Each structure stands twice: as structure tokens, then as C-alpha cells.
Amino acid sequence: MPKTERHLIQIRLSDSDRRRIKSLAAKQGLTLQEAVVEAFNAWAEKTRTHAQRAPRSPQAPSSPPPDWLKRALRLDWTKCSEVELVSDGENQMWLFRESDAPLNIVLRALAEGYSVTEVAETFELEPPQLANVIQFASAKSESNALNL
């Protein structure tokens, strides 16, 4: 049997992320290390599957103006029912409700011109939920721009 090479990698995770991954791993009967390896394998498979499809490029003409993202990220997201603020005691992050999709990353992808369908598929979001967030961000960003 060939000797398996082992390499040490370091991943920075918040305490809450580490606990969540460890809990998910335990539910599957895996160690934290095994869960991380499984996650990398799943990610690699998803990447291969995505690469086999026809390559898609951002749709620059339909992307919002560059300052849209900056304004959207400064909104009072407590007024949007589709997102929630998650905290581990030290760090806070806005996520789409019932998902692990970070609001800032999703908005950035949209600002870069990726279609709503692509973004919803990539982040495993329900299209109506994503549409509601876009509508909230667009409406609030436009009203804020008029008040400048």
C-alpha cells in the first residue's frame, strides 16, 4: 500500500464557523479533519462540473453603476426581512436567511454583472428571496442617492 502524503494547511475560521463545521461533521460521524477534506472534495467536484458547462462571463452592460454596491452595503439591512445579522461574539456578518450566503459577496457578484439566475444557483438561494433583496437594495440605494 503506497504511503499517503500529508500536508498541513491552515484555515482561519471564526469560533462559530469552527463549531458549526464540527457539529455538522459529528452529525455525519466525521472528524473535523475528515469534514474539511470532504468539503474540499465537494468544492472541487462542483468546480469541475461548473467548468464543464459553457463558460459564462459577466454581463457588463446590465450591471448596476459602480457606486450602487457601495450604497447598497451601507443600507440599514435590519429593515430587509430576507437577511439576518449573524454574530460569533467578535465578528458580525449579514447572511441571507436560512442560508450561508454572505450578503456582501452576493451583492458584489450582482454588481459585477452576473445574472440573478447564476447568483441564485451559485449561492443556493431561492430566486424570489434574491429578487426581494435586489429590490430592497435598489429602492433604498436610489432614494439615498437622491438625498445626497
Could you name the key traits of this structure?
two-stranded antiparallel ribbon; single chain; 53% helix
Number of strands: 2
What would you call the structural class? mainly alpha
Unreliable runs, pLDDT <50, ≥5 residues?
54-62
Proportion in helices: 40-55%
How is the largest sheet built, in terms of strand order? 1-2
Number of separate domains: 2
Proportion of β residues?
5-15%
Q: End-to-end span in angstroms?
A: 69 Å
Q: What is the radius of gyration?
A: 19 Å
Overall pLDDT metric? 77
Describe the structure.
By secondary structure, this protein is mainly alpha-helical. It folds into two domains: 1-55; 60-146, no CATH class. The protein has six helices and two strands; from the N terminus they run αααββααα. It has a two-stranded antiparallel ribbon with strand order 1-2. A hairpin with a 4-residue loop joins strand 1 and strand 2. It is globular, with a radius of gyration of 19 Å.
Indicate the topology.
Blueprint: H1 15-27, H2 32-52, H3 66-73, E1 83-87, E2 92-96, H4 103-111, H5 116-122, H6 127-146
Antiparallel strand pairs: 1-2
